[in-house]
Amino acid sequence: MEETISLKELFRTLKKRLSLIIIIAAIATATSGLVSYLFLTPIYQSSTQILVNQSKSDQQAFNVGEVQTNLQLINTYNVIIKSPAILDKVIEQEKLEMTSGALNELITVSSEQNSQVVNIAVQNEDPQKAADIANSIATTFQTEITKIMKIDNVSILTQAELGEDPSPIKPKPVLNMAIALVVGLMAGVGVAFLLEYLDNTIKSEQDIENQLGLPVLGAITTINMDDELKEQAAGNQTMLRTRGESVGS
Prior knowledge:
Layout: H1 7-16, H2 18-39, E1 44-52, H3 64-81, H4 84-94, H5 100-105, E2 107-111, E3 117-124, H6 127-148, E4 154-158, H7 173-198, H8 205-212, H9 227-248
Helix pairs in contact: 2-7, 4-6
């Protein structure tokens, strides 16, 4: 017999397991908040910008071909910036206790399309250290690129500075808790439907028809007695018990 599930049954299941869904969502949200606030280390980011452009005097004309050359060099520069040739010197200057590979993981080098500006972003647990490392990378690259490429076309456009009240870029507790809430609700709904699917007990006449495929001919309803009727029934039972004891004596 083919089973069909109506929207009414789905809503009935959700209403029946609503407390379970809320508990699972609350646990997921609270766990995410505790982990974000207490166990994850805040990470700060600071960035500096360098300009790839040959310095010119006032008499020199604008050269489109030279701009295209600078744009083509940017991809090469992005690789050189994160190379041990630059990072090893930065580690030595800043007295960092890490390898060039570990420092490489903390650096992001990017540039907009057809832009001669390169952005160097550094992440660190200490906001001041992040700014110092970013500035050290920029100055070291500006010095070393003339030796590596034999080209002097890099200038520092913006230095990394520490703001008055730096805020970490990660973790983001509010976002994490919002995601955990959504995931918790989805998990709660899934558990609710799973429990309902595994529950094969018969609770209504409809369940009998679905399980046996037979029509229900009759049903015994539950009589809800109010307080007055309950008192009368209790009194009648007491009188009958008293009469029975009298007859027996």
